[in-house]
Specification:
3-stranded parallel sheet; disordered N terminus
Length: about 300
């Protein structure tokens, strides 16, 4: 009875975008209502358990919600009390994550990407992104996602994007086609189990790929995500230097590569994110960047943000 009551309350408390504005969301996605209780999507996306405290709600061009610092809050951003995922029976999984189609096209956009997580620092970065109304893309290892599912659930609930980065960072070009397929499937399965989202792309470890990797990826309906600017944060391991580097080299349309497994990177984001916002940059997911650049992602394709 308690479960039935919860489902009924969720059904009553949901709102669904439709029409042109609804194009921002995968088909059938329900977004946070103003009840402040729980969030569910018909695609099986994250559901916060009753009592979880939302820091914002999904927004559209009209009546967008704002956070305490005045920045817009989008797609059901939840606090660290965000709880477990719940899949409603008889529903399909999301193939892609929501894209905000109502952003100001005149503002320069960049996509921050974080590899090799999740880790203890992922949560810090997600909370910081949420406080400034920003998003990023997290390229996660399946082995870590399985052990720390709550951290990638939090990223998805905040509005950021989660894609795969292989199971345990093996160079895919050194694997057989069968092993590549198994690795991609296993990693996406871990992401689905944690978030209800089935990514349409992944980032190959070391950026390594060949014809076989692309062929297997195409059959798995996955595109290959690269980057246009590497910060080498794994080598720097210095928050001050990383911040200065980004200040000097950031350009509109970049896909910036970093790693959320390093404390110094998380520390640098405390300066980087607010500085980028102050400079007028819109921090978006890779999928959003591709949308605004008019880049149509196809399985087996390789994308670094260039048109």
């Amino acid at each position: 009875m308690a479960a039935l009551a919860l489902l009924l309350s969720l059904t009553v408390g949901l709102s669904v975008f439709s029409g042109a504005e609804g194009a921002a969301f995968a088909e059938g996605v329900s977004v946070a209502a103003t009840t402040g209780q729980a969030t569910v999507t018909s695609g099986g996306a994250p559901v916060a358990e009753a009592g979880a405290t939302p820091t914002g709600q999904a927004t559209a061009p009209s009546g967008a919600a704002v956070s305490d610092n005045g920045y817009p809050v989008t797609y059901a951003a939840f606090s660290s009390s965000y709880a477990a995922t719940m899949h409603l029976p008889g529903t399909d999984l999301l193939r892609i994550q929501p894209v905000r189609t109502y952003l100001d096209r005149t503002r320069p956009m960049i996509a921050l990407t974080f590899d090799d997580g999740p880790s203890q620092y992922t949560e810090e970065i997600v909370q910081l992104l949420g406080s400034y109304g920003c998003r990023a893309t997290f390229c996660v290892l399946g082995s870590r996602a399985t052990k720390q599912p709550e951290r990638i659930r939090m990223a998805v609930a905040q509005g950021s994007e989660v894609v795969g980065h292989s199971w345990n960072h093996k160079l895919l070009t050194k694997l057989s086609n069968k092993a590549i397929k198994k690795d991609l499937q296993k990693t996406n399965k871990a992401i689905r189990a944690a978030t209800g989202v089935s990514p349409a792309m992944y980032r190959p470890p070391y950026g390594g790929y060949d014809k076989d990797v692309r062929r297997v990826s195409k059959r798995q309906k996955l595109a290959l995500l690269m980057w246009s600017y590497d910060t080498y944060d794994w080598k720097l391991r210095d928050a001050r230097k990383l911040f200065k580097l980004i200040q000097e080299d950031v350009r509109e349309g970049q896909i910036i590569l970093m790693h959320d497994i390093h404390e110094q990177t998380a520390e640098a984001m405390e300066q980087v994110i607010p500085w980028l916002v102050e400079q007028g940059y819109e921090l978006v997911t890779v999928s959003e960047l591709f949308y605004y650049k008019g880049i149509k992602v196809k399985p087996g394709g390789v994308y670094n943000g260039s048109v």
